Amino acid sequence: MTDPNTPDPAVPHVPEVPQVPDVPQVPDVPKVPDFPQSNAAGQPPPGGSGPSAGPPPGGPVPPPGPAYQQPGSGPAAGYGPPPPRYGSPAPGGAVPYAGTKQSVLSILSMVAGVIGLLGTPVGFFPIVGGILALILPVAAVVLGFIARGREPNGRGFWLTGIITGFVAIALALLSILLWALLFANAPMNGYNYNFDY
Q: What domain range is 177 assigned to?
């Protein structure tokens, strides 16, 4: 009597083959209807093809190409639809990137204020330097206040322009005042203002 748990030395052991799972069925692909093929001139091939041998309904098929335009029609049809306006949805439903409005006045205000502040040493030339040193800072302050109302998204720029503009204006006025005091208190040696003749 042979024991099934002990293998017979004369018969080699064959492993069991695992079962293959069932493969799911793929759905059928719908068939595309046959359309008549056209050659480069837009005419159907001789002898016809498809369900009818005559020209397709609606007239001849226009040849492919971006520059083809039927007489009396608008812009060339091959160029595609006009680009969507900013904020309006595109054909796919996505809203195109409209970009942000540039903060031109805010940037100009900041640049004028920084250059006016860096140009403060010009104000220490007698009188004329102080007047010249007022031009850019005043422009920075004016542009900063205009930009504050029109460009709220450029807050950092116009605020920098206003602050640096006021500091540069204060330094320019200080230089004018110092030069005026210096000239007013200068001794008048050698000058005689006696106008009695």
A: 112-183
Whether the pTM exceeds 0.70: the reply is no
Helix/strand/coil (H/E/C) assignment for every residue in the chain? CCCCCCCCCCCCCCCCCCCCCCCCCCCCCCCCCCCCCCCCCCCCCCCCCCCCCCCCCCCCCCCCCCCCCCCCCCCCHHHCCCCCCCCCCCCCCCCCCCCCCCCHHHHHHHHHHHHHHHCHHHHHCCCHHHHHHHHHHHHHHHHHHHHHHHCHHHHHHHHHHHHHHHHHHHHHHHHHHHHHHHHHCCCCCCCCCCCCC
pLDDT at 132 over 70: yes
Q: What is the mean pLDDT of the chain?
A: 74
Within a domain: 169: yes
Number of compact structural domains in the chain:
1
